[in-house]
Design goal:
Shape: globular
Number of strands: 13
Largest sheet: 13 strands, mixed
Number of helices: 5
């Protein structure tokens, strides 16, 4: 009897591990239709994708089933220790874009400000089971410092719900936002009907970088210098 009990226990543990197993296949991209929509445009070594006012969640696993509703968009805002109405209202709208390019509007709501994360990883902080644990405070703060010079002491965690039953393999959830603060991270989380977790690895997360600084064009600079030279020349003539 004890052997049977032991075998049953091992079987149950094995089944539990299968159900809870995580697929870190939700990539954060720069918006449907852009060259970096599926990720793969790193701004921190070979990791983290650049996002701006538009971002997307891409299901990289072609065979992934439609995830349960809602799918969660999670934002980590550097050095935020209290709820912010600006961030809570930052997500404007979203749409589901399937593999044929068909777009369907998706109801999006702000769920909660979960508090400030000083350590650990974002999925453990939110108690989301079965998720990839590489989106940690250590990785986020290291990227913020290296890319933007931001010394992050914590990250305020904001959770949004995207209500869709159709988000499956190679689909996109395209999201329009107010421009997020520099150094903000974006990841996603969802589950299948079997309880399998789908999350974002650090290498596929999104990070809001500083906007590129404009480089002055040579010709306008030449004209400005010539103008200043002319003013000096005329002034000297008047004095003489």
């Amino acid at each position: 009897m004890s052997k049977i009990t032991t075998l049953l226990s091992l079987l149950l543990l094995s089944l539990a591990s299968i159900v809870a197993r995580a697929d870190a296949t939700l990539h954060i991209g720069s918006g449907y239709g852009t060259s970096c929509a599926t990720g793969g445009c790193p701004i921190y070594g070979t990791e983290v994708n650049n996002i701006n006012a538009v971002l997307d969640i891409y299901q990289n696993a072609a065979s992934a089933p439609a995830l349960n509703s809602p799918v969660y968009l999670i934002l980590g805002v550097a050095n935020t220790t209290a709820a912010s109405s600006v961030i809570e209202n930052s997500v404007l709208n979203a749409s589901l874009i399937d593999t044929s390019g068909h777009s369907t509007s998706v109801l999006t709501t702000f769920d909660t400000y979960a508090g400030a994360m000083y350590s650990s990883d974002v999925y453990s902080f939110l108690k989301f089971p079965g998720a990839n644990k590489s989106n940690s405070f250590t990785n986020w703060s290291g990227a913020d410092l290296a890319v933007d010079g931001i010394q992050a002491k914590n990250f305020g965690i904001y959770v949004f719900s995207l209500y869709t039953n159709g988000f499956a393999g190679n689909d996109y959830l395209n999201i329009n936002t107010h421009l997020l603060p520099e150094g903000t991270f974006a990841v996603a989380y969802g589950t299948s009907s079997s309880g399998r977790a789908y999350s974002t690895a650090f290498t596929n997360s999104g990070m809001r970088d500083y906007p590129p600084k404009p480089v002055p064009e040579p010709m306008p600079l030449v004209l400005i210098c010539l103008g200043l030279f002319g003013i000096v020349y005329v002034t000297k003539r008047k004095i003489a």
